[in-house]
């Protein structure tokens, strides 16, 4: 890994390189941005560039320190995060981190600690980490990685140097994929779906099954109005198993609703699921804006319910039946829906 191998993020890379040259690294960083933008890669490159034996402010990839970091076995570069079986990052993880913080560097002048999904810290874990951020050992650098900065304590944010990572353009992602030998048309299709995330684009390009499953869900959504109860229950049962295996079902549903809203605003060029444009057009033009907005609200509520540990198969079943009911609404019901939305607003 080197700075140049991290796609985009020029501002963040320049800031960190300049701080390395001037020997003024912060004691704590907060890298924020959507999944797949390269937060962890940036954190590990900062560590490698700092500890590289060649001392050229960039990792060489060949010295012993760089090799150990790339193989995740350098004693002075450690990554912490939620346990595989847990969504939250508990106090036990932070206590382990604090035990490591008390130890001086084993092989280098600094120790780097990366905390993945820092927004998943429990209240107890966050308050404990705050104490370490207030008075860290001089030889340590803590790097918090978050996708949702708003979920962190303001006091934690204020004690870190913040660097926000930004989505890449479709053209940039398509170009990166084509350099890997992916045909232009397919690269352009993946770039639309990636929503600016090179990591997500790479995953879609490498996992053909992921795209096949995605298309199955979208085909079902396109014809949801004609599906009977048995078909819905059968599909949800299968997709619940996929969801348990980290298939991004809620994200796909959210993006489908987003595409419907985007198309209804006469912005078909911004539709991500462009291979379903005709289906999106048919649904969007037969629905009013409030109806489409309500569909997205239902998906967001389902996501919240699942995060609150409500059974996913139950949540998804209810969601699909509610979506179908909205799509089947006649003109009178659509008017009633629109009126109810306005009554609940501040307008």
TrEMBL record:
Coiled-coil annotated spans: none
Pfam families in the record: DNA_pol3_delta2 (PF13177)
Single biological process term from Gene Ontology: DNA-templated DNA replication
An annotated Gene Ontology molecular function: DNA-directed DNA polymerase activity
Transmembrane spans: none
InterPro entries: DNA_pol_HolB (IPR004622), DNA_Rep/Repair_Clamp_Loader (IPR050238), P-loop_NTPase (IPR027417)
Family matches, as Gene3D superfamilies: P-loop containing nucleotide triphosphate hydrolases (3.40.50.300)
PANTHER family: DNA POLYMERASE III SUBUNIT DELTA (PTHR11669:SF8), REPLICATION FACTOR C / DNA POLYMERASE III GAMMA-TAU SUBUNIT (PTHR11669)
NCBIfam families according to UniProt: holB
Name this protein carries in UniProt: DNA polymerase III, delta prime subunit
Species assigned in the record: Halarsenatibacter silvermanii
């Amino acid at each position: 890994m080197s700075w140049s191998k991290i796609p985009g993020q020029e501002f963040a890379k320049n800031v960190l390189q300049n701080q390395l040259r001037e020997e003024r690294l912060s004691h704590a960083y907060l890298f924020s941005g959507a999944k797949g933008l390269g937060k962890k890669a940036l954190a590990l490159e900062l560590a490698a560039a700092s500890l590289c034996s060649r001392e050229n402010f960039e990792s060489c990839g060949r010295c012993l320190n760089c090799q150990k970091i790339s193989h995740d076995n350098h004693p002075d570069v450690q990554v912490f995060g939620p346990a595989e079986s847990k969504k939250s990052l508990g106090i036990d993880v932070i206590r382990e981190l604090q035990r490591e913080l008390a130890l001086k560097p084993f092989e280098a002048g600094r120790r780097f600690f990366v905390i993945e999904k820092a927004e998943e810290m429990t209240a107890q874990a966050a308050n404990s980490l705050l104490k370490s951020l207030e008075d860290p050992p001089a030889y340590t650098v803590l790097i918090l990685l978050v996708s949702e900065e708003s979920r962190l304590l303001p006091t934690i944010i204020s004690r870190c140097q913040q660097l926000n990572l930004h989505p890449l353009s479709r053209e940039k992602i398509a170009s990166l994929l084509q350099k890997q030998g992916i045909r232009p048309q397919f690269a352009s299709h993946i770039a639309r779906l990636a929503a600016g995330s090179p990591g997500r684009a790479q995953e879609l390009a490498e996992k053909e099954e992921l795209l096949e499953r995605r298309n199955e869900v979208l085909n079902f959504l396109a014809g949801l109005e004609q599906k009977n109860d048995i078909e819905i229950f059968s599909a949800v049962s299968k997709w619940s198993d996929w969801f348990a295996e980290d298939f991004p079902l809620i994200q796909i549903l959210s993006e489908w609703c987003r595409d419907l809203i985007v198309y209804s605003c006469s912005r078909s060029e911004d539709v991500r699921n462009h291979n379903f444009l005709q289906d999106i057009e048919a649904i969007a033009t037969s629905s009013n804006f409030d109806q489409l907005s309500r569909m997205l609200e239902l998906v967001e509520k389902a996501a919240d319910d699942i995060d609150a540990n409500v059974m996913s198969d139950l949540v998804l079943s209810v969601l699909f039946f509610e979506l179908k009911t909205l799509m089947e609404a006649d003109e009178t019901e659509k008017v009633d829906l629109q009126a109810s939305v306005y009554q609940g607003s501040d307008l």
